[in-house]
Design a protein that fits this description.
- By secondary structure, this protein is an all-alpha fold.
- It has a domain of 50 residues.
- The protein has 4 helices and no strands.
- It is elongated, with a radius of gyration of 21 Å.
- The N and C termini lie far apart (61 Å).
- The mean pLDDT is 79.
- Keywords: Membrane, Transmembrane, Transmembrane helix.
Length: 99
């Protein structure tokens, strides 16, 4: 393999950077990457903290929030958020209390 000069190396790095930026901001892929990164981060934190039970609750909360429409702006957004928080807290308290 031939050695690159500094100008070729800079161009290569710029092209890779441009590609990764386009890839990261691609709408469909971006949502998947953010979701996957959040799930992996929560799982790793659960393993490090030795609390996989709480990590599993947190992982389940993400799709529940998306399904309930908490990510959609609107006049009843805060009402939906309040109801979701109360119901989620009740479910976690009940399930942890049954252990």
């Amino acid at each position: 393999m031939a050695k690159m000069n500094s100008q070729e190396e800079a161009l290569f790095i710029t092209n890779i950077s441009r590609f990764l930026t386009r890839l990261w901001y691609y709408p469909s892929l971006n949502m998947g990457l953010r979701g996957s990164a959040a799930i992996i981060l929560i799982g790793v934190l659960g393993m490090v903290g030795e609390r996989l039970d709480l990590a599993s609750y947190a992982i389940i909360a993400m799709p529940a929030a998306l399904l309930s429409g908490l990510d959609q702006p609107g006049p009843k957004r805060w009402q939906r958020l309040g109801i979701s928080i109360v119901m989620w807290a009740a479910a976690i308290t009940l399930s942890l209390g049954l252990n």
